[in-house]
Fold these 2 entries.
Entry 1:
Amino acid sequence: MAFSPNPLSLSVPDPAFESWLRDSGYLDLLDHRTSAAAAAAAAPASSSSSSSAAAAAPSSASDDVVSSITGGFFASLLSRLVTVSSLLTINPFSKLSADDFSGDTPPWTTGFFGACGSYSFPSSSQQARMRVHENIKRFARNYATLFIVFFACALYQMPLALVGLLASLALWELFKYCSDRWKFDRHPSARRLVIGIGQCATAVLLTFLNVQMALFSALAVSYSVMLLHAGFRKLTPSKKPSRGR
């Protein structure tokens, strides 16, 4: 049965519909929509390869099956490698704002880690990019906590860096004490001179006591964990949609 065209029907463009899903909190539907689009794009290629294999001669049928299986495996492996490598080209902080750190921290067990079914390989680079942007906005406070934990572990493994960090903090506390006692606020030139000396001394301490190495290692580990978690973590609804009565 065919329906006649409805002059009152509306056609919503895909970008507008995806923007509405994102603003309304239906991130899981947006994630599923991207996976379905990638599967639909890959379906014609698989159907064409199967039809060509069916049209082959019976003597070379087994060879065609082996070659099609091998070619499909390497094509799938190459596609997955391209998808994973695309994570390195994403700017994960492009949509991050200060408001993302002002909310409550999502639960670690049910929200951040989730169950085993909460993870899947991204079907395309577009889905990986979308997951990274949305998950980083949602779990910004969790990732910040992980960075603090990794930095503390790096300082524990590098005691000299811990000494340099504590010495830098003690140096600025000493500057604050001297500023309050000797009223540096009344002498701006002397205050600027002391601040410059303190900055130079802090740079020397942080450089020679390898504090920057501990900071770099913590940044590298936390950045890698953040990209992998955000790229493989499925999107979940950010808020419950309101229902009309």
Entry 2:
Amino acid sequence: MPKSKRAKVIHMSKTDKKGKELSQKLFANVREAADTYQYIFVFSVENMRNTYLKEVRSEFADSRLFFGKTKVMAKALGLTDSDEHLPNLHALTPYLAGNVGLLFTSRDPSTILSHFAAYTQTDYARAGIPATQTFTVPAGTVYSRGGELAVEDDVPLPHSLEVTVRKWGMPTRLVSGKVVLEDEYTVCTEGQVLNSNQTALLKMFGVAMAEFRVDMKAYYSAATQEVKEVEAMEE
């Protein structure tokens, strides 16, 4: 009697094996980079965007950047003085918590810190982050920038979008082929945690509220075998 398809067992060994191989590769790459570069920076990322992280990788083509799998990276550096890869390197691993990565470089630390202190990229907000400003669309004809530009510099919102913006919560209606609001409509208030409807409206009106930023937390120097906390150093 043939086996039922419902009773078919799917073995995860191949998936597990691939994941293990990737972790082992990351472990080896982190250790190789530690032996190659003079400094190891731990950095955190605000409003993660792969596009901007790729830009950072491009700008630091002479360095190595790793992001994700913090437990593997921490183990590669060493969790204690008995298993650390380089002298006193275990002192860097407590900073490997949260949305963080490692930057291996031989560039001077002052250059790295000044570069990232000035580096930001603005993007559209995603659901779950707080609004950085209050955004209100004026009453009357709805324009493509929602009142951010003077009427003479803007164009009315296409009538074909009326159903869409209404679905996203704006109480609009069509009047003589134009999208109209009876009263002003506040899309979000400063500090309010945004939902998907709000972020969709903000993007449509061209209002960017997310800031991609890389913050350096601490770094290790191979020459001095010391770990410096960036905030403490800057104070």
